[in-house]
Structure formats: structure tokens, C-alpha cells
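Comment on the following before class.
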Amino acid sequence: MSEDSRNQRSNAVPSSRLGRLYHLGRASGDLALGLGWQGLREMVRGSEGSGRIEISPAQARRITERLGHMRGAVMKMGQLMSMDGSDVLGPEVAEIMGALRHEADPMPLSQLDSVMRRELGKDWQKRFQSFDFTPIAAASIGQVHRAVAADGRELALKVQFPGVRESIDSDLNNLGFLIRNTGMMPEGVDIDPLLEEGRRQLHQEADYEAEADALAAYGAALGDDPELRLPRVHRDLTTQRVLAMDFIHGTPVDQLVEQDTPQAVRDHAATLLSRLSLRELFEFRLIQTDPNFSNFLYDARHGCLMLLDFGATHSVPPELEALYRRMGRAARDRDREELRATCEAMGYLRPGAPEAETQAMLELLEMTSEPLRHAGPYDFGASDLFERVYHRGRAMFFSDRFGSTPATETLFLHRKFMGTFMLCRRLRARVDINGLLAPYLDSAEAEA
């Protein structure tokens, strides 16, 4: 943790709907002021322009501080925007906005003590040999403290911000109001299913006992893999708002680039991430859908990946997994008829859609699936695929011809896949996606 973040001033979490709407409105105002009218119109309506959102570092800092002060659902949405801003935002601004992946304002000690007393009892400190009151991380739902239990167990304790769970519905209602009244979505696109899925997921993430169950289920599916490791949950110190896990050591995976890590190590880390994403879909049918970079630590000494944060874990119905097999095989083989059929089944195309709309969607999917068709390692660092997909997809999304809303369960799966792609790209890694995927597409099960 940096010295700056350790010295960061704590702020109480705003809890009233009006208070949270005030901060959201100020963040939106800062964004509009930073972009200017023309820039805001280009961003919202998908104009090509330079393809880069120009916000000054000072304006980005104000927006980040607003969202970091709010925490909760609104900050979670900001994290999604900051997954990889290096091509959409300027590099300085991307670095500032990237703080949303790691840091929120920590809560004051009085709020922390109140949560711990409510969850673990008034004498909660007696249950620990030591407890570091300075959080090692603070994100959208809670903050993490390092501690040693009374019996010597070395722990990471995730403590939920007070009021965040209760504010999810009002936050999303406020977001929905702003989206509907600022033209941020094209006409004909119904945002209600997306907001409802976000609501469901955030309520799930705010239940730490459910996260503990998800981590146990994921661990059972993963089995004994020496290259992928999970922290153990300590149930005696876990409640709905406090999650006790092993403290594990490692480097946040995206920082491997900053540390001038050798190419082979970056390739290995990205290959592990890619292989895991495929196993989640095709073997586990259980996906951790939050690809936030800070959720993955790399242990260079053992050459393994440490997995964190299972609040956003989704099961995948067998019929949806089968559709993804069909779509992957069709995209790889350029089978447009099959690709069209799977697009209709997933809601990306309306049955009987105009031919121009259909062909545009199929071309976008073929472009996106470029790594699937590449023989041997695909060089994400040298590829401009992200830029091409970003510009084409944005123009299509805001076109009046496209009003179909995909099935909500696919949106969060695609969030995971896009996050994995961005991590590979961030690492400038070379990964044999074709080779990793082929067994799932060409197996007897895939043919069934």
C-alpha cells in the first residue's frame, strides 16, 4: 500500500438517498464540465472524433473522489468504466481513474468499530492478537484489514461499509434516472433488465456469507490445481458484513508490467487467466464475473495465480454453456449461418432483423473473435483489436437501427471475457487462445 493511501483522510459513508444523489449529481456535473458539450455529445452518441475522452487530471481527480466518497453501487459502475482506460482516456487520466479499482475513502474508525461491534460483539478486539486499523485496500463495498486471530491465524478481514447494502436500490434508481434523462442510451434499448441484474448482483456481493459459500463451491470445482490458489474462509469470524480469509501474498497482476517483468512470466500469468476463464464456463459452469485487475495476485516464487473476491459469482445453465460452444465454433470457423442462429438465441439479433443489421453484428463478432482463429500465441501487446472493436461496437450500439437487448445473463459473462482480454492486453502478453479453446469446441461433448 502506498504512503499516500495510508495517509488518506477517512470519510463517513453517505447513507441517505438525497445525500447519495447529491454526490452522484456532482460527479455527473464534473464529467459534463470536463468533457464540454461537444465531448459529452460525442461520448454519449458514439461519434468517432479522436476516440479519446479528454478530461484533465484535475477534473478526473474530482470525479474519482466523488465516486470514492460514495462507495457502493455507483462506485462499482465507475470501476467498470476504469477497467482499461488507456485508449479511451488519456494516460494520465486513466491512471487517476484506475484508482477506483483499488481505493475508496476508508471509513472513520468510529464507523469501523460500530460495524465490528455489531457483527462480532462488543469485545471483538479480544478475538485478535493484532488488528491493523489502517486498511490495506478499500473498494466499492468494503475495506480490507490485516489481522492475526487470537490463535495465530494470519487473516485478511473484509469489512463492509455501513449503509452500502441498504443503499443499493436507491443508487441504482438514481443511476437509472440519470441514464434515462441524459440520452446515454439509444432509443429503444430497455435498461431495466440490466439495472435489475445489477441490483441482484450487488445484493449478492453485499452478503459476505453468500460469498463464503461461493468461494467454497468454486474451490471444490477448481480442485487441486498447483497454479491456481484460493484463500480459505474462516467461518468463526465471518458474518453477512465481515468476511475472514487467509491473508495471501502476491503482486497485483496488472503491476507485472510496471515492474518490467520478463515476457515469459507475463505470458504465463495471462495464459493462466485465460485458461481459468474457459474452465469456468465449460467445466465449472461457475464464473467469477468481476475481472477487476486487483482480484488477481501473481506469486512469482511459485509461478501461480492467487484468486480473490467471489462476491460476483454466477452459475451458468447448461443450455447457455452449449450456446457459447456453438458460438465459439461458428466464430472460429466463420460459419455465418450458425453464428446468426446463436446470436438470435442470445438476444443479440432479433429474428427477422434487416440484413444490414445482421451483417454488421456478424462482422463485429468475427472481428472480436480474431484471437480464436490465430494459429499459435496471439500477441495482445501488438494488436489493435481493442481499438477496432471499440469504435465499431460503439457506433453500432448508438445506431438507431439496433434496439435489441441481449439476455442479461450474457452481459455479465461478457464482462468477464472482456476483462480477461483487457488483462492480457495490459500485460502485453502472448497467449495461444486457439489452442486453449480447441479442446472445448472439438470434443465429443461439444459435438453432442
